[in-house]
Fold:
Amino acid sequence: MSGHSKWSKVKHSKGALDAKRSALFTKLGQAIIIAAREGGGDLDSNFKLRLVVERAKKANLPKDNIERAIKRGTGEIKGKKIEEITYEAFGPGGTAFIVEVLTDNKNRIATSLRIIFNKHGGSLAGKNSVLWMFNRLGVIRINSDLIEKNKEEWQLKIIESGAEDFKEDGRELVIYTSLNNLQKLKEVVEKDGLETESVGIEWIAKELISIDESKRQKVATIFEELENDPDVQDYYTNIR
Structure:
């Protein structure tokens, strides 16, 4: 559960995709709209858009949906204005949450998040109450089996390419880098013929805390309810 990211833990599970496909497609469409609005609709020049579209393709979002979302972002197709909001919250046992939202209704999502956290022993927090506990980093995940034969040599290579840290999490190698080095490091990884599991920007907890089983169950319920809310793009915690 360390540094929990919805995308890293959920998006590659076929069962989860099948069960939550409608909400997932809504989230991906909104992310594409925002990325295209911020940097234009050209995938070659808009790295953020390219990442989101790659993520959408892995989730089997139809091509027509992707193209329509890009056009909404660039203004070629009109639609409701979508806003990007970051919420800070405390969960059971003083756990910290960052919840990233894309929504066309601020009142709706604020109410939804307040209800989710309040009923499970938490609360929404004030601005800058939680963010200071996290670092904003570029994160690349690959299957660690792909580098098993020359692991030390490859790890040295990514450090020389600007990786700030890396860790093995089960069969996954998680690589951390600064935001402005993410594109370069992604290109280094892919140049070696390695397929990435995910590439993105995440909030990584500076220090992790442990909680007992009863609180862990409440946190798991919060995860599930955040997962089911189509306005919630991603969420992160400082739980070990």
Observations:
- The radius of gyration is 18 Å.
- The longest strand covers residues 134-143.
- The CA atoms of residues 161 and 185 lie 6 Å apart.
- The chain has three domains: 6-74, 83-132+207-237, 134-205.
